Amino acid sequence: MKIKNKIILLGLITLSPIILGMKSLDKAPNTYYRVYLNNKNLGLIKSKESLESYIDKKQNSLKEQYGVSTIYAPEGLKIVKEITYSNDYQSTKTIYNKIKKESSFTIDGYKITIRPYNSSDKKENPLIIYTINKKVFTESVDKTVKSFVTDEDYKIYSSGKKQTIDDVGKIIKKIYIGNKISIKKSKISTNNKIYTSTNSLSKYLLFGGNDNESKYVTKEGDTISDVAYNNKMAPEEFLIINPNFKDANALLYPGQTVNIGTLSPRISIVEEDKVVAYQEKKYQTETRNDNSKLVSYSEVIQKGVDGKDKVTQEVQKVNGETTNIVPISTEEVTPAITEIVVKGTQGSGYGNVTSGYGNVLATRGEWGWPATCASISSPFGYRWGTLHDGTDIAGCGYGSNIFAAMEGTVVKVSYKYDNGKYIVIQHPNGFYTMYAHLSGYNVQEGQRVSKGQVIGYMGQTGFATGVHLHYSIWYGYPYYGGKVYNAMSFY
Questions:
Q1: How far apart are the C-alpha atoms of 335 and 193, rounded to whole Å?
Q2: Neighbours of 100 (CB within 10 A)
Q3: What 3-state class would DSSP assign to 348?
């Protein structure tokens, strides 16, 4: 009898969990919400709405900072409805603190994607900018455009009125943003830089991440060109960040405070013009050898005179800098007269020629012009903090002749990723000239050339945004211990 009672008791103990489970099935299941942050399980909550409301309530400082009425959950937060018999849920406050610890909250805004202008690398990462509203971005872009396009030109183009040229002048064909830009409304993480004002965003679009904007107090004798160069700026950059000056020839007085900074534009403002202008045509030099005279003998028997042409060109500028000039037509107004120089050839080569920079200074004007046209698309000087170590000459057309600027020996005929096809000539006075972005060569290494001799042809090889010649003068071999000078100071 005792054994029988024990068996009954054991059976009841064994069945009790099943009975209790059957009783729990009689109850309705709970509807809770499981919270995930970047696929990490943070736990269950009773109400999705209560969490969203709690987040919004606790982030008043963010509302004030960004001027918004609502703060939202972070990116990567998912709240999934879950039906369960479990009562193992957590308080809204507990889940909120977990979220706050691991991520930042979001607000309504706009994600702006800016793709690089004229980039050949399709995989190049685009620039991402976040703003509170589209108006902040559009006003900032408009302000940036006006930094690179004059008020007068902007008004003329914006008016839509037909433009004409009586004799010389220009027609503004297009002003546009070269980048591909997309604007999408989205929830933005407050962990990102979010622009809330036109001034702050336009400053970024102009200077990029550069934080070197500062003030400079002018001294006696300062010019805009000097101040710009000494601070690694182009005169055009100086005028952009000091709009109270009309042009680079404006006078500075001692004690005047001006803005200094390195531009690094985030967007490309493109201006395309048709330009008609009178242009000086540099004379060429013909050298005639006389073997009856010593090598030190040199006589000009016909003095060279520059001519004048009326040229029509299509000019493209990007952020105020000329990047391409395409010739349309040229009308000769006054012909150039070739200079003829007789040089002696008796003696031992170049040994009798004086070397040193002083000799070149004494003979300025004797350097020949290296191209058939005289348009300078980009002068020697700083551009956005980097020295442009040559003078870009454009508008002659693809394949036009390139000339040796002075007699010498060709020491390099080669190709480099940035210079493209280039030539280096060593001159008897310790100077070297370099001619880059050529389409082809007409000389070979070791060849002696005379001033005005055709050495190559204008092109667009290497890093070149348009057809032009990059021309530079160095004392010593270019880049390898040589010192570069502004080539235009020799003309």
A1: 60
A2: 14
A3: coil
Residue 364 corresponds to which tokens in the numbers above? 């300025």
* Contact predicate 68/118, CB 8 Å: no
Distances (CA, A) of 269 to 139, 144, 206: 14, 8, 11
- The CA-CA-CA angle for residues 374, 403, 344, to 5°, reads 125
What tokens does 201 get? 């965003």
Q: CB burial class (10 A; 0-12, 13-18, 19+) of residue 3?
A: exposed
How far apart CA 406 and CA 403 sit, in angstroms, is: 9
Its pTM stands at: 0.76
Buried b (16+ CB within 10 A) or exposed e, 72-96: bbbbebebeeeeeeeeebeebeebb
Q: Give the pLDDT means over successive 10-residue stretches in the chain (491 positions).
A: 48 47 63 93 92 87 88 89 89 92 91 86 82 93 90 89 92 95 93 92 86 85 92 88 87 92 91 94 83 88 92 94 92 92 71 38 67 91 89 94 95 96 94 97 96 95 93 95 92 83
